[in-house]
Amino acid sequence: MSTPSDLTAEALEFLAERHLGTLTSLRRDGSPHVAAIGFTYDPVERCVRVITSGANQKAANARRGGRAVVAQVDGRRWLSLEGAVRLLTSESEVRRAEQLYAERYRKPRPNPARVVVEIRVDRVLGTAYLLGRSPRLPG
């Protein structure tokens, strides 16, 4: 099993490039809910942030806690970031997540109901060279 400390410089660069991902969280009945999302990864805090509306299924799932996964794929490169999930609702936490989102993607549209799904990453899966387990493959 890999952890965030195994992420190589190339992996961190990949997580900073403009790509969309998927968020997988669990509904109340335990079934997976998968949604296409924009997200940010903070390598210092080892956390993923996803901004969303407080009424969305993503928010409801995060409000209950548990675990969630964000995945990003681009051709042969992919990473999956997993950990404990929670919902952040304070104005300062939302503003910070919006700022990080704007740096990676674009300024988000105004949304007074915005909240943040936060994942504290403790498990990482992905392309071997992004985790320092093999040299980068050509092409």
What would you note in describing this structure?
The chain is 21% helix and 40% strand. The chain has 139 residues and is α+β, with helices and mostly antiparallel strands. It has one domain: Pnp Oxidase, Chain A. Strands 2-1-5-6-7-4-3 form a seven-stranded antiparallel β-sheet. The longest helix is centred in the C-terminal third of the chain and has 14 residues, at 91-104.
For this entry, give a set of tags.
F420H2_bilvrd_red/Heme_oxyg; coenzyme F420 binding; 139 residues; Pyridoxamine 5'-phosphate oxidase N-terminal domain-containing protein; F420-binding_dom_put; single chain; Split_barrel_FMN-bd; Pnp Oxidase, Chain A
Number-wise, the strands total 7
Count the DSSP helices.
3
What is the end-to-end distance?
26 Å
Helix content: 10-25%
Rounded mean pLDDT is: 95
- What would you give as the CATH superfamily? Electron Transport, Fmn-binding Protein, Chain A
SSE arrangement, N to C: HEEEEHEEHE
Largest sheet: 7 strands, antiparallel
Give the radius of gyration. Answer: 15 Å
Whole-number count of domains: 1
Strand content: 35-45%
**Backbone structural class:** alpha+beta
CATH topology: Pnp Oxidase, Chain A
Q: What is the CATH architecture term?
A: Roll
Q: In terms of per-residue confidence, which ranges show pLDDT below 50 for 5 or more consecutive residues?
A: none
Q: Quick one: overall form?
A: globular
Sheet with most strands: strand arrangement: 2-1-5-6-7-4-3
Protein name: Pyridoxamine 5'-phosphate oxidase N-terminal domain-containing protein
Pfam families: PNPOx_N
Keywords: Oxidoreductase
GO molecular function: coenzyme F420 binding; oxidoreductase activity, acting on the CH-CH group of donors
